[in-house]
Amino acid sequence: MKKLRILFATIPADSHFGPLTSLAVHLSDLGHDVRWYVGGHYREKVTRLGLYHYPFVKARTVNRDNLDALFPERAGIRGTMARLRFDLREVYLLRVPEFVEDLKDIYADWTYDLVVHDAGFLGSDFIREILPVKTVSVGIAPLAESDTCLPPSGLGKQPARSRPGRWIHHLMRYFVQQVQLKPIHDLYNQLRRQHNLPEADEFVFDAAIRHADLYLQSGVPSLEYPRRSISPNIRFVGAMLPCTIRRRKYFEHAMQALQARRVVLVTQGTVEKDIEKLLVPTLRAFKNEPSTLVIATTGGSCTEELRKRFPEDNFIIEDYIDFDTVMPYASVLVTNGGYGGVMQALKHNLPLVVAGVQEGRNEVAARIEYCKAGINLKTETPRTVHIWQAIDQVLTDSTYQRNARKLGWEFGAYDANELATQYIEALAEVQERVLLAEELQIAC
């Protein structure tokens, strides 16, 4: 088939940008013309991938990193739902008109065939109805599409097992969508009217998923809840993880790991800066247990401080460690629930202990608990004793390790880049045939 002109477009945040990088490089290596539209400090990251960068021009760079600085009034907002509404409005929805204008200007300069974007980039939901392009949305978190047998997404609730429970979840869905987040849905439709587009009858987040020509869901079916139905545009493709350009290195502490009775890997990702939440209590849990090796990755936060506080020989504390090099030696991953890290652990057959609530991490933790591949501590600030007990439980109860291996085998059967490429090229072929048929009809 012909080489495609593909524009990647993402919210300027690592959790939105990173998971799409490997696919972008893969498509570029196949000869497709791949470029990237993203604001903020991502120009260097895009060019490092060998891709052309389009900066935000009319669009304002707003993300969770600068929200408080741009909007001082946010600090005075009380209540989790009120703050969520504020963030959804400022980061995602009010940026849509700006994104649309930038995307139209890019199209005038470079006629792209399709847009590949993270699910939070709602500008593509509009541009596919304004320009003759196809859109491919990438689910970078657990599938959020509503279903009659599931609770509303975002609450970290598992499917009910009884009829009364399912009825309660039905009421919860109604309350969340029709009351708590109704202003967000109304704003979404207001923006659609401003662009002369029909209003969406379905809830805003469902519309964003179902409107895409193709929705690539990062993950595997067994990590999701059973559903009554699923939209026909959704395809599971396995773990979509950040591109690692650097050559994989040998884990320098391999001998120490092999000599340890068990190896605990703990991470808070790169966004969470408060080391007291998870890193400190995990290190404390094994301060007096020299037979257990604890490997902590700080994401660059307070690394030297932690080394001074915990100088024990059974502790390795680093800014960053390539997970693919260390996970083969680990016994368990302790994490705040970052979706990419969890999938990477499962690919290495690792059971998990998850302590995450905010920013959708509760949904990741709930699925790990549902699959019995680990323990959900249901808090972002677990006590030391609870971390120790959870780790001991997942390493002594073979159920967790067995289920983690099953998920690992399933992840191993999915080549995310190859599958995503096949689906994208198939979509483009269909579009090419439609355009050719229209041209023939006009000619006749």
Fold blueprint:
Blueprint: E1 5-9, H1 14-29, E2 33-37, H2 43-48, E3 52-54, H3 67-70, H4 80-93, H5 96-109, E4 114-118, H6 123-130, E5 134-139, H7 163-180, H8 182-194, H9 204-211, E6 214-218, E7 234-238, H10 254-259, E8 262-267, H11 279-285, E9 292-297, H12 303-309, E10 315-318, H13 323-326, E11 332-335, H14 339-347, E12 352-354, H15 361-370, E13 374-376, H16 384-396, H17 398-412, H18 416-443
Parallel strand pairs: 1-2, 1-4, 2-3, 4-5, 5-6, 6-7, 8-9, 8-11, 9-10, 11-12, 12-13
Q: Mind telling me the C-alpha Rg? A: 23 Å
Number of helices: 18
Mean pLDDT value:
93
Low-confidence stretches: none
Helix content: 40-55%
Question: How far is the first residue's CA from the last residue's CA?
Answer: 26 Å
Which strand order does the major sheet show?
3-2-1-4-5-6-7
Anisotropy-based shape: globular
**Biggest beta-sheet profile:** 7 strands, parallel
Beta strand %:
5-15%
- The total of beta strands comes to 13
Q: Give the structural class.
A: alpha/beta
